[in-house]
Input
Amino acid sequence: MDKDKKEEVLKIAKFTSVELLESARPLHGILDTCKSICKMAGISDENSWIDLEINGYAVKYKNRDDLCLHLPSYRKTGWKFYDLYGNLIPLHPVAEALFGQSTIYHPIKELESGKPIVVEAKFLEKFNNFRSKFGLDEISKVSIHEGRIPPEELKHVLDGVKNRIQELLDIIISLLEIQ
Output
């Protein structure tokens, strides 16, 4: 990369870092800028996670097992379960320990919207099968229709994305400054 291009990328990276720290722009916009920075710096292949954050992890991982295996830790968080009629389904503490983490696979723009995040029933199939086979009480016979992510858990996910972006920008800035 020539000197002028390096300086341009460095300037954009530093400006984006400030925007991130000041929450001046939505994360999806900052991720788009990071994608451009990586492309200009020639490191797009090493940062495919940016596309997954922008488009959602369900684009690449089609079932819960794949999601659990490949999702970053900040996208695994608590959730509440509801039946078909929207009634909260309380979980036995053992089941809570087994199935207590959700898989938040949604695109970052959807997470930033402030709308409730719902985990689709297709990702709960194994959970429902387990509950119907091994449930210890009558409530275990009720099928879970959806999982919902509480707002405080969404904040945890957004903070995780923000931290990962900052780490990327810090690395790019450091590398460009020492070249």
The first strand starts at residue 76 and ends at 77. The chain is about 55% helix and 10% strand. The CA atoms of residues 53 and 108 lie 6 Å apart. The first helix runs from residue 3 to 21.
